[in-house]
UniProtKB/TrEMBL annotation:
Species whose genome carries this gene: Acaulospora morrowiae
Protein name: 17826_t:CDS:1
Length: 47
């Protein structure tokens, strides 16, 4: 079975990791979007 990843938990980890630096926050948002997109495509292609 594919690993279940909670987007909110990942986002929360990113927020904690970059809570005081807007540059890191923007980087985290970009990384989060890329990760979510790639993971979603992985799920779609697996069907």
């Amino acid at each position: 079975p594919a690993p279940v990843i909670d987007p909110y938990r990942v986002w929360y980890m990113f927020a904690l990791w970059a809570k005081s630096d807007y540059t890191w926050l923007c980087f985290s948002v970009e990384s989060f979007v890329r990760f979510t997109t790639s993971y979603t495509m992985f799920i779609i292609n697996k069907r």
